[in-house]
Task: inverse folding
DNA sequence: CTGGGATGGATTGTATACAATAGCTCTGGA
DNA sequence: TCCAGAGCTATTGTATACAATCCATCCCAG
């Protein structure tokens, strides 16, 4: 693995974990000391993080950790929903061979098994997150559009905008089962819509699916404990009281 | 202006003008000779161009100019329409103060004047492009979402996906007046929709508006002469006969 | 004659030295 | 006491030297 990639991964992790606070200036030499690579790959990583949106360039040079308002998080989620909606619609409109839907249906079955349990363990939630991400990636791939896939991947770069961003919040909240059941039904419906070439329906379902995450955000903003389970939550500015 | 920015602008220009052919490997030292800046800013510029999508990284190191299939261009335009549609919908749903619509209406009036002429000169088309871009930027700004604005700016980075990408094609085609009239009507309708807080309508108009560009692409792909007026057309792979 | 491996050149990846600049502090004057 | 300016320091921007790696060519063996 190259030093640049190493620096990128480590820096991203430091930012998302909250070790580097929002607004904090990122001094190159300090990062060099911390990561043990030279300035060149650190700078390269910073440029990429800026593109990802986790870091912003100071007009007079240097970078700072980006802070996100609650509204921006909402917009990021809405944007993700719109892009996934586009992918679902494109897939439905052009039609996909039945065998390409098999892996998606496999995800559905496995998720059924996970959320079928009477009481969900933390491991169950982690398994759900894994399956959920597999489902969303497979869905994106159905559109056969590398350009769109890339744009969606960019949206996922903000972890609180990604499909599983707020799932772990539910692990400590009573409505958990409820919400996962609803999400899973949307998964099932969107596959059906694509199968039947119902483009507009597929698009709307994915948009609504993303709005589940907005509801989670709303719940989590009232619950500091829940927010701790959300990767990157440290970047979200707390509500003004 | 920094060396990095200078390198970025020059390289982007070389790629879009076709001086660097699609698929061509970009050797850093060759670029250094050509641009007169050292490798460091050249490398920084290449990373940014990769994010813009004009250049792709070779798995074993180095970069090459990206080539686009006609289908990818279509997808890029569709994507732009979806994003602008989202911006228009958000603006309509939250409502915008009447005075913020004034600059947009100003654009409408000016465009009316330009396309009102019996016969359009090349200067008229250039003026149209300028006003059209002003209109689209102002519309994007109405959504009050820097996150979305940035995503739309990224879509515009591929010039053939930007709102004025194919306008100049019309300068040498007979349907010109026709198409500009239609586009301008869509401009007018979307402002009206936002004014009336008709979110769904505003969104659909912007999507359809983008599809005008897809039609232009279709026309231009048959006409090498027309393609020469499209910035970045050199990156579009010609149709297989 | 063909295939595989080794060697050399070309090219990218990394580190670091140097230059430029921005921001801060300290001093002097009003 | 407060403001302005100059100088210094800390930090980023740039160039370049060095290391690693990849690719191509050539030679030798089967």
Result:
């Amino acid at each position: 693995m190259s030093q640049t990639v190493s620096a990128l991964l480590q820096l991203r992790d430091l930012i998302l974990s909250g070790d580097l606070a929002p607004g904090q200036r990122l001094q190159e030499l300090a990062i060099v000391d911390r990561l043990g690579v030279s300035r060149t790959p650190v700078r390269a990583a910073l440029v990429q993080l800026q593109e990802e949106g986790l870091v912003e360039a100071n007009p007079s040079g240097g970078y700072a950790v980006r802070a996100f308002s609650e509204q921006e998080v909402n917009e990021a989620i809405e944007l993700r929903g719109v892009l996934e909606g586009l992918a679902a619609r494109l897939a439905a409109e052009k039609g996909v061979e039945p065998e390409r839907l098999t892996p998606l249906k496999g995800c559905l079955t496995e998720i059924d098994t996970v959320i079928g349990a009477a009481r969900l363990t933390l491991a169950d939630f982690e398994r759900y997150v894994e399956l959920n991400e597999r489902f969303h990636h497979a869905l994106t791939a159905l559109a056969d559009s590398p350009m769109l896939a890339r744009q969606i991947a960019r949206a996922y770069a903000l972890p609180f905008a990604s499909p599983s961003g707020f799932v772990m919040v539910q692990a400590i909240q009573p409505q958990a089962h409820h919400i996962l059941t609803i999400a899973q039904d949307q998964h099932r419906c969107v596959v059906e819509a694509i199968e039947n070439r119902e483009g507009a329906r597929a698009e709307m379902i994915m948009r609504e699916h993303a709005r589940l995450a907005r509801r989670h955000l709303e719940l989590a903003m009232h619950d500091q404990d829940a927010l701790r389970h959300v990767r990157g939550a440290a970047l979200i500015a707390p509500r003004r009281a």
In short: The mean pLDDT of chain B is 92.
